[in-house]
Amino acid sequence: MMTLQNLSDRQQITELIYRYCRSVDRLDIPLGHSIWHEDAFADYGADYYQGPGKGVIDLICGHHRSTLAHSHQITNILIELDGDNAGSESYCMAALKILQNDTPMQMMVWTRYVDHWSRRNGRWGLDRRVAIRDFDEIRPVTPMTQVSAGRRDLTDPSYEALRLKADKL
To answer: Which InterPro entries does the record match to this protein (predicted)?
Structure first.
């Protein structure tokens, strides 16, 4: 039976999964750090990153600063609750635009996040993430436009609309 507490817990975890994408797309490192518990571990594969959870945010945001644009979307979120612990699987699609020898290229990466969560002192946070890259590609693209109101920082119009500040989380 689904209780109000179960629904609330699922929504809180879902929001944290969404905040991860927002943090790396807006290069908002404090927001990204806020989803992890202090002793969390991130495993994005031996060829990319294995270490403290917050460290993967630093690495990804650092890499994204050298791209022209990037966007992450999360889908297919499944969450299993067990009291103050939970497991989840979510699908992430990331599109990144880079220049390679003066040619605009689009990188696409399809990944699943297999996460272990816990509620500590009333707050849900990530304990462990295993990122499973299912496939990826890179190809030349022809941009449709160069104009965008979006920004990859805290001046993005969405921050004013949402009044989202990492220190309030």
So the answer is: NTF2-like_dom_sf, SnoaL-like
Element (H, E) at 4: helix 4-25
One-letter-per-residue 3-state SS of 110-166: EEEEEEEEEEECCEEEEEEEEEEEEEEEEEECCCCCCCCCCCCCCCCHHHHHHCCCH
Render 82-102 in DSSP notation, one character per residue: ETTEEEEEEEEEEEEEEEETT
* Token duo for residue 92: 């992430």
Give the tokens for residue 20. Answer: 């991860």
Which pTM does this prediction carry? 0.89
Q: Of 34, 33, 39, which is closest to residue 52 (Cα–Cα)? A: 39
pLDDT digits (tens, 9 = 90+) for 132-166: 999 999 999 987 776 676 777 778 888 888 875 54
Q: What is the CATH number of the domain that holds 77?
A: 3.10.450.50
Report CA-CA distances (Å) from 85 to 1, 6, 38, 116.
Answer: 18, 12, 16, 8
State the CB neighbour count (10 A cutoff) for residue 107.
Answer: 16
